[in-house]
Structures are given as C-alpha cells and as structure tokens.
Write a structure and sequence with these properties.
The chain is elongated, with a radius of gyration of 37 Å. The protein folds into 4 domains: 18-95, no CATH class; 100-234, no CATH class; 235-283, no CATH class; 306-392, Up-down Bundle (Substrate Binding Domain Of Dnak, Chain:A, Domain 2), CATH 1.20.1270. By secondary structure, it is mainly alpha-helical. The protein has helices at residues 4-25, 32-37, 39-46, 53-58, 62-65, 70-74, 101-109, 112-116, 124-130, 132-140, 148-152, 172-180, 183-186, 195-201, 203-208, 223-227, 237-247, 249-256, 259-267, 272-276, 287-290, 306-336, 343-362, 368-423. It contains 24 helices and no strands. It binds heme C (9 copies). One heme C binds next to helix 3 and helix 6.
C-alpha cells in the first residue's frame, strides 16, 4: 500500500521529469546537469513577475558562458531546492542596490589575474570613478546616474562585439539615450536632452547606423568614442581637437597651423565643435562666412576686421567655383545627349570638383595663401571645361548650319521643280 507521502513524492518526481523535459525542449533551458545543480535557476525560471526574467536573461549572457552562476553575484546555496537556499547563512546578499553595483562587478573586473586570461582591461572601475557618473554616485550619492548595469544590462550582459549587446558599437547611442534623451530623468540636472536626436541626424550618426551607403559604420564615432567608454565626461577644451583629430587627422593638422588653434589655447574658442556642433557635425554652408549666428564668422569677428575680409574673399572664391561647376554640370548633361565625345569635358570638370574638395580641409588653415593655389587650380580646370563646352557648342552650331543649309537647298530644289512642272505644257487628254 502506498502512503499519501509516497504518492506525493512520485508525483513530484514525475512533474520534475516533465519540467526537465520541458526545459530541454525550451531554448532558455540549461543542460540538465547544470539545471539540477542550480536550484536558483530552476526555481526562478518558473517564476513570473520580476523574479523570472533574470534567470531567462542570464541564459544567453557572456557570464554563463564563462561559468558564472547566480551565486557569483547574489550568494546563497544552489544545491538546496527550496527558498532555504537564499538564507543569509549561505552568504545570500539579495538584490544589490545601484550604489553597490560598481564594487560588485569590480570584484572580478578589477582582478588582473582573473581578467588576463580573457584579455580584458581591468580599469573600468578606476575610470568610472573619474567620470561625471561616478563622481555623482560617490560624492553626491546620486543613484540616478549610470552604473555598470545601466549600460551593460543586469543579467543579459554580452560581449561588446556581440551585435545584441547594449554596448555594441551601433547600440551605444540608444543606451546612453535611455537617460540622456529622457526629459523626465534629466530634469533635475538642467542639461539639454537633444544629444541623441542631433547625433542621429548628423553624418556620424547616419554612418554608424548604416544609413549612408558606401560608408563603413565601424569608422564613425559613437557617444563613447568622444566621451570615453568608462570615463564619461565631456572632452576638455584642448582634448576636443584631439578627439576629432584622431579620425580627421588631416583637417586637425591644418587647423593646428591656423590662428584659431592659437586662439583655442588662449581663449578657448573656436574649437571644431564651435563651427560643427557637438553632435550634429554639420558641414557649414557658405553662409557661415557671411552670417553672425552661433559658430558663424560674424559671431566673433567685427565687420571691418581682417578675419571678415578673409571670410568674404573665401566665400566669393568658393561660390564662384561652385556656381561655375554647377553651370558646366548642366551643359554637360546637355552635351551627353548630343552623342559627342565628352571625355575631356568630364575629366576637366571632375578635376575642378576634386580641387574644390581638396580645399575643404585646407580652409582650416584660415590662410588665404594656403587656399588660393587650390582655388586657382580648380578654376583653371573650369576654364578648360568651359573651352571644351564652347568647342562642342561651336561644332554643334556648324553641324546645325550645314543641316539648315542642306534643308534649305532641298526645299529650294523642290520648289524649283514644282515651278518647272507647273510651266510644262499640259498634254491634251487622249481621245
Ligand atoms: C524554490 C524557489 C527558489 C529558489 C530555489 C531560489 N529562489 Fe530566489 N526567490 C524566490 C522567491 C519566491 C523570491 C521572492 C522572495 C520575496 O519576495 O520575499 C526570490 C527572490 C530572490 C531575489 C530577489 C531578492 C530581493 O531582495 O528582491 C534574488 C536576487 C534571488 N531570489 C536569488 C536567488 C539565488 C541566487 C538562489 C540560489 C542560491 C535562489 N534565488 C533560489 C524563489 C527561489
Ligand atoms: C553578474 C552578476 C549577476 C549574476 C550572475 C546574477 N545576477 Fe541577479 N541581479 C544582479 C544585479 C546587479 C541585480 C540588481 C538589479 C537592479 O538594480 O534592479 C540583480 C537582481 C536580481 C533579481 C531581482 C530582480 C528585480 O527586478 O527585483 C533577481 C530575482 C535575480 N537577480 C536573480 C538572479 C538569478 C536567478 C540569477 C542566476 C540565473 C542571477 N540573478 C544572476 C546581478 C547578477
Ligand atoms: C564572478 C566574477 C564576475 C563578476 C562578479 C562580474 N563579471 Fe563580468 N565577466 C567575468 C568574466 C570571467 C568575463 C569574461 C567572459 C569571456 O570573455 O568569456 C566577464 C565578461 C564581462 C563582459 C564582456 C566583456 C567583453 O568581452 O566585451 C562585460 C561587459 C561584463 N563582464 C560586465 C560585468 C558587469 C557589468 C558586472 C556587474 C554587474 C560583472 N561583469 C560582474 C566575470 C565577472
Ligand atoms: C555609461 C555607460 C557605461 C558604464 C556606466 C559602464 N560601462 Fe562598461 N562599457 C561601456 C561601453 C560603451 C563599452 C564598449 C567599449 C568598446 O566597444 O570598446 C564597455 C565595455 C566594457 C567591458 C569590456 C572591456 C573594456 O574595457 O572595453 C567591460 C569588462 C566593462 N565595460 C565593464 C564595466 C564595469 C565593471 C562597469 C562599472 C564599474 C562598467 N563597465 C560601466 C559602457 C559603460
Ligand atoms: C542611467 C542613466 C544614464 C545613462 C544610461 C547614461 N547617463 Fe550620462 N548622465 C546621467 C546623469 C543623471 C548625469 C548627470 C547630469 C549632470 O550632472 O549634468 C549624466 C552625465 C553625463 C555627462 C556629463 C554632462 C554634463 O556636462 O554635465 C556626460 C558627458 C554623459 N553623462 C555621457 C553619457 C554617455 C556617453 C552615456 C552612454 C555611454 C551615458 N552618459 C549614459 C545619466 C545617465
Ligand atoms: C564626435 C564627438 C561626440 C560624439 C559622437 C558625442 N558627443 Fe556628446 N559632446 C561632445 C562635445 C565636444 C561636447 C561639449 C563639450 C564641451 O562643451 O566642453 C559634448 C557634450 C555632451 C553632453 C553635455 C551637454 C551639455 O549641454 O552640458 C552630453 C550629456 C553628451 N555630450 C552626451 C552625448 C551622447 C548621449 C552622445 C551619443 C548619442 C554623444 N554625446 C555623442 C562630443 C561628442
Ligand atoms: C571615430 C572617428 C571619428 C571621430 C572621433 C570624429 N569623426 Fe567626424 N567623421 C568620421 C567619419 C568616418 C566621417 C565620414 C567621412 C566621410 O564622409 O567619408 C566623419 C564626418 C564628419 C563631418 C562631415 C564631413 C563631410 O564631408 O560630410 C564633420 C563636419 C565631422 N565629421 C566633424 C567631426 C568633429 C567636429 C569631431 C569631434 C568633435 C569628429 N568629427 C570626430 C569619423 C570621426
Ligand atoms: C571657424 C570655423 C571652423 C572650425 C573651428 C573648424 N571648422 Fe571644419 N569646416 C569649417 C568650414 C567653413 C567647412 C566647410 C568648407 C567647405 O565649404 O568645403 C569645414 C569643413 C569641415 C569638414 C569637411 C571637410 C571636407 O572635406 O569638406 C570636416 C571633416 C571638418 N570641417 C572637421 C573639422 C575639425 C576636426 C575641426 C577641428 C580640428 C574643425 N573642422 C574646425 C569651419 C570650421
Ligand atoms: C568663437 C569665435 C570665433 C569664430 C566663430 C571664428 N573666429 Fe576667427 N578668430 C577668433 C579668435 C579669438 C581669433 C584670434 C584673435 C583675433 O585675431 O581676432 C581669430 C582669428 C582669425 C583670423 C586671423 C585674423 C588676423 O588678424 O590675423 C582669421 C583669418 C579668422 N579668425 C577667420 C575666421 C573665419 C573665416 C571664421 C568663420 C568661418 C572665423 N574666424 C570664426 C575667434 C573666432
């Protein structure tokens, strides 16, 4: 005779078998051995609300791959099946507060011996402490700032090279934006919340998210490239030219020749971002030279200064070239339909364009002597192009004249023939 107790036990075994089978068929399941050894996982995986997701998310994390278990961060005794496993007597620490997270992660991540085998740096906590986030956390006890888990996730932490990671190159802007684009969260700090939106509109953001065809997203900066990965502070005044210069090295080297570079060191402006914006990295139009708005030359320089004279000259030179190139572009598309050989015209126009493009970075010397040669070369190619157009047009005109002459002659001949026919004596109809 089986006791009630035995029936219950058999039932429990049976349901455990069903559960294990179910977990094996389920993508979020641990291998049976790992599962059985880890009561934390098996119990939490069945729970709902806030208690279940940690188990399921942990399943696909880099930490599980590395052999960590729930106990690595929470303590406890995973070989006990019930809630007894979560007793403080087994070192169970419960849910860490935000304030405790950096030290919790750093127990391992600042451990050189442990991290060496994974070829990971161990300076995250040290850097984090120097960041605006870290300083507010440690000095002001402000837990609204980013801690390790705000950027990396809690249980679903993945490698930075995993496209699903919150810190994967192109996911970083959205991760920072969770707070920095949220007016509610940023309200107490009175700083703008437009960085993400501006960044996404700008060239960098569009390249990073793969929206500009032919540009490699891996070469574009994300928020952390400029602000530092763990030392998230705005780059200092002098650093900015260096940060931008890491990638725009040619522009930066021209900029270092310019009176502005000296000015940046003396009065702090104009930096790269004064003219290009922090996050929108706009390319100024020619209006920058004549305008007085933020970042435009007239916002700092007096109308009768040498600087504005320079600005006016550059604007006139550039706008002359731009309109010349545009005009010839139109003539070129007409010439294309004419069936003439336009190779020389095309090549001259391309060269004129290239010289103008080359002048873009050189403008940062803010020296007319440096810019003029390129402008002159571009202009020389434009003149060649114009001459080509004229040749083509002359040729076309000649052809048209010959054609018109031929048509006239034909009409004339036809008319003469007509007259002649009319004058011929009519033969009387035969009877
Ligand atoms: C038999 C099921 C079961 C087992 C086994 C179990 N837990 Fe829990 N766990 C729970 C329940 C239920 C709660 C909610 C308790 C509460 O709200 O008081 C909980 C709460 C937690 C919390 C949140 C505590 C908080 O302060 O909010 C953590 C963290 C946790 N468990 C980790 C673990 C770890 C680590 C283990 C293994 C050592 C483990 N659990 C084993 C059922 C379980
Ligand atoms: C790398 C460290 C780490 C590991 C490993 C880890 N956790 Fe956590 N867990 C945390 C942190 C940090 C929090 C606090 C998150 C927060 O601030 O809401 C947390 C919170 C929780 C909570 C509370 C969730 C809530 O919203 O209240 C539960 C339950 C939990 N963990 C269970 C588990 C279980 C089960 C495992 C293993 C499958 C596990 N954790 C593995 C770090 C870890
Ligand atoms: C018990 C030790 C331990 C703790 C605690 C721990 N980690 Fe890890 N973590 C590791 C190990 C080991 C790896 C390396 C895994 C690998 O590369 O295979 C790792 C990898 C990582 C990675 C992936 C790095 C990469 O390759 O890009 C991130 C991110 C990470 N951990 C963040 C955290 C955060 C955030 C916390 C705190 C919530 C934390 N870790 C707590 C041991 C730990
Ligand atoms: C403000 C967001 C943010 C915070 C806070 C943050 N991280 Fe990171 N972390 C990142 C980003 C972004 C990367 C990816 C860097 C890359 O792609 O090179 C990263 C990379 C890592 C890596 C991979 C190795 C490396 O150094 O590049 C580890 C490990 C790591 N973080 C651990 C931590 C720990 C531990 C903390 C807390 C002390 C922390 N992180 C806080 C954003 C953050
Ligand atoms: C959990 C929310 C949160 C996340 C995620 C976050 N931050 Fe912050 N951040 C803050 C708060 C709060 C401040 C404090 C604002 C202040 O004091 O002006 C701050 C300050 C900053 C500052 C200094 C602003 C200033 O001049 O005062 C920079 C720069 C910054 N964060 C960059 C980043 C970057 C880059 C990321 C992503 C890699 C990021 N943050 C992710 C909450 C967050
Ligand atoms: C190309 C470099 C670059 C990138 C990319 C970048 N920033 Fe900035 N950011 C800057 C500079 C430069 C400043 C201004 C620093 C100063 O004025 O000293 C700044 C300022 C900030 C500030 C302070 C704003 C204020 O008005 O006080 C925050 C917050 C910030 N950035 C967040 C972000 C976030 C979030 C992203 C990604 C969506 C991002 N940044 C991307 C360069 C960059
Ligand atoms: C991680 C590298 C990187 C950093 C750092 C960086 N940029 Fe860029 N930037 C790029 C790339 C790549 C492009 C696209 C260039 C192209 O069109 O081929 C670009 C484009 C631009 C453009 C538009 C150029 C055009 O022709 O459309 C401007 C303006 C610009 N960046 C300004 C800045 C400024 C200002 C900073 C510093 C605050 C900066 N960048 C930092 C990589 C970077
Ligand atoms: C005083 C304003 C000013 C400053 C400071 C400035 N730029 Fe520019 N930048 C311009 C103007 C104007 C153009 C557009 C030139 C044109 O029409 O081709 C430009 C063009 C660019 C371009 C596009 C280049 C191209 O190929 O056409 C990049 C990239 C750029 N700047 C980066 C930078 C960087 C990096 C810095 C700092 C080292 C910087 N700029 C400082 C005004 C400025
Ligand atoms: C944020 C302020 C600021 C902006 C914007 C600015 N400059 Fe300057 N510029 C300076 C400062 C400061 C100096 C050095 C002091 C001086 O000569 O006035 C300087 C010097 C110059 C000089 C050398 C003048 C001389 O007397 O030798 C030229 C040329 C110049 N700027 C051109 C420009 C042009 C062109 C623009 C617009 C594309 C521009 N600047 C935008 C602040 C600015």
């Amino acid at each position: 005779m089986t006791t009630v107790r035995e029936t219950a036990r058999t039932f429990r075994r049976f349901s455990l078998a069903v559960l294990v089978a179910g977990f094996l068929a389920f993508p979020g399941s641990l291998p049976a051995a790992e599962e059985a050894a880890n009561s934390c996982f098996s119990c939490h995986n069945r729970l709902g609300g806030r208690l279940g997701p940690p188990a399921r998310e942990f399943f696909s994390s880099v930490h599980r791959e590395a052999g960590l278990t729930c106990v690595s961060c929470h303590g406890g005794n995973p070989s006990l099946p019930g809630e007894e496993s979560m007793s403080p007597k087994y070192g169970f620490r419960g849910k860490p507060a935000e304030r405790q997270v950096p030290e919790l992660c750093a127990r391992c991540h600042s451990n050189i011996a442990m991290m060496r085998q994974y070829n990971l740096r161990t300076d995250q906590l040290a850097e984090y402490r120097t960041s605006v986030h870290g300083r507010l956390l440690y000095e002001k006890n402000d837990a609204n700032v980013a801690v390790c888990t705000s950027c990396h996730g809690k249980h679903d932490i993945r490698r930075r090279t995993d496209p699903q990671s919150a810190v994967f190159r192109s996911n970083v802007p959205a991760t920072c934006g969770k707070c920095h684009a949220d007016p509610e969260k940023m309200k107490p700090y009175k700083i703008p919340t437009d960085q993400l939106a501006d960044f996404e509109k700008g060239v960098h953001g569009r390249i990073l998210s793969g929206k500009i065809e032919g540009k490699n997203p891996a070469l574009a900066p994300n928020c952390a490239t400029c602000h530092g990965v763990h030392g998230a502070t705005p780059p200092g005044i002098r650093e900015v030219a260096n940060v931008c210069g890491n990638c725009h090295s040619q522009v930066a080297s021209y900029f270092r020749e310019s009176p502005h570079f000296t000015a940046v060191r003396e009065v702090g402006e104009p930096k790269c971002v004064t003219c290009h914006g922090n996050h929108s990295n706009r390319v100024p139009t020619l209006k920058v030279f004549s305008g007085t708005g933020p970042g435009e030359c007239g916002s700092c320089h007096e109308p009768d200064s040498k600087a504005i004279e320079f600005a006016r000259n550059v604007r006139d030179l550039l706008s002359g070239l731009e309109s010349g190139i545009e005009e010839i572009g139109k003539d070129l598309s007409e010439a294309e339909t004419s069936g003439r050989n336009i190779d020389r015209l095309k090549s001259a126009l391309d060269k004129a364009r290239n010289k103008l493009t080359e002048a873009g970075p050189v403008i940062h010397t803010f020296s007319i002597e440096r810019i003029l040669p390129l402008v002159q070369e571009s202009d020389a190619f434009l003149r060649t192009a114009r001459q080509e157009i004229r040749n083509i047009q002359d040729e076309q005109r000649q052809r048209r004249a010959v054609a018109a002459y031929a048509v006239t002659m034909l009409v004339l001949i036809a008319a003469l023939l007509g007259v002649k026919l009319a004058l011929l004596p009519r033969t009387p109809p035969e009877k």
